[in-house]
Design a protein that fits this description.
With 260 residues, the protein is mostly beta strands. It contains 1 helix and 18 strands. The protein is elongated.
Length: 260
C-alpha cells in the first residue's frame, strides 16, 4: 500500500520517540564505559535510539532534552519512579547522556544550562557538567553517564549497561516473537523476542492500514532473549501490528491494541 510522504510524516509525528532494547540473557554485555569495571556474567542492557528530527533542541550545540524511559529496573530513577536521562549536544558532532538522578540525595537535577554548561540540582544546588562530572558540592560523586553513538546525520544511540540478571545464559533453541505486554497498551509497550541465530534484526510497528509507524529496533544482535520497551502514549488509539524480521530468514508478526 502506497502513502504520500506528507501523510507518512504526519503519522510519524505521533509515533514513539524513544525505544529501549533490553538484553535479558545471552553473551556478557559489551560497551561498559571506562572506569565502571569489566563486564562479567550476564547483564541487562539497554539501547536507546532516537532521531534528532523528533527533538528540535538537539539540532544545535548546547541543546538538551530530558528522556523519560518508564520504569526500567536497570536504570536509576527519580521523579515518580521514572527512569530519566538527559541527552545534550555538547558540540556539533559530540553528545553526552547522563542520569537525571543526583548522586547526593536522589533528586532530579534541573535542565542543562548552555551558558554555564552545567546541570544544577534544585534540592541542594549540586552542579555537574554535561558529562556528569561534579562542579559544585554537596554531591561528591559524578552522575552516571552513558556512551552515545552519532551516525553523523540524524540518528543517536545511547548504550545503557544494567544489572546482573539470573536468567539462563543459554541461547534459545529457536527464534520467536513474543506478545506485547500489556495488551491493550496505553503508555509503555514491552515486546519480547528470542533469537537463536546471530543476524541483523528489524522490529517495526505498523498501522492496521499497513503504514510503517515506527522502527522499534534495527541492528545486528547475537543469540539471546530481548525485550523492547517503547512509549506509545502519543499514538492514535486503535489496532496495530508489529513485525520482527532477521537476516537469518526468521519473520513473525503479532497484533497489539493501543487505548486512550
Amino acid at each position: 500500500m502506497k502513502h504520500s510522504n506528507g501523510a507518512r510524516r504526519a503519522f510519524l509525528r505521533q509515533s514513539m520517540s524513544v525505544c529501549v532494547l533490553a538484553l535479558l540473557s545471552g553473551s556478557p554485555a559489551e560497551g561498559i564505559p571506562a572506569g565502571r569495571g569489566k563486564a562479567s556474567g550476564n547483564r541487562a542492557s539497554a539501547i536507546v535510539s532516537i532521531s534528532i528530527d523528533d527533538y528540535p533542541a538537539l539540532a544545535h550545540a548546547g541543546g538538551s532534552v530530558l528522556l523519560t524511559l518508564g520504569e526500567l529496573p536497570f536504570l536509576e530513577r527519580c521523579g515518580n519512579g521514572q527512569s530519566r536521562i538527559y541527552l545534550t549536544r555538547v558540540r556539533n558532532d559530540e553528545f553526552a547522556a547522563v542520569t537525571a538522578r543526583c548522586t547526593h540525595d536522589g533528586c532530579c537535577i534541573g535542565p542543562y544550562n548552555p551558558v554555564s554548561r552545567s546541570y544544577t540540582c534544585p534540592c541542594h544546588e549540586s552542579e555537574f557538567d554535561a558529562y556528569g562530572a561534579v562542579l559544585a558540592d554537596p554531591a561528591n560523586e559524578p552522575l552516571a553517564s552513558y556512551p552515545v553513538v552519532f551516525d553523523g546525520a540524524k540518528t543517536l544511540r545511547i548504550d545503557i549497561p544494567g544489572l546482573r540478571t539470573d536468567i539462563s545464559a543459554r541461547a534459545p533453541t529457536r527464534s520467536k516473537l513474543g506478545r506485547c505486554h500489556p495488551n491493550p497498551v496505553r503508555q509503555i509497550a514491552r515486546i519480547d523476542f528470542e533469537i537463536a541465530e546471530p543476524g541483523h534484526l528489524v522490529l517495526e510497528l505498523f498501522s492496521v492500514q499497513g503504514l510503517l509507524v515506527a522502527t522499534l529496533h534495527d541492528s545486528y544482535l547475537q543469540p539471546g532473549r530481548y525485550v523492547v520497551s517503547c512509549r506509545c502514549g502519543h499514538l492514535t488509539p486503535g489496532p496495530y501490528f508489529y513485525r520482527l524480521r532477521s537476516s537469518s530468514g526468521f519473520s513473525a508478526t503479532k497484533n497489539m491494541l493501543i487505548q486512550a
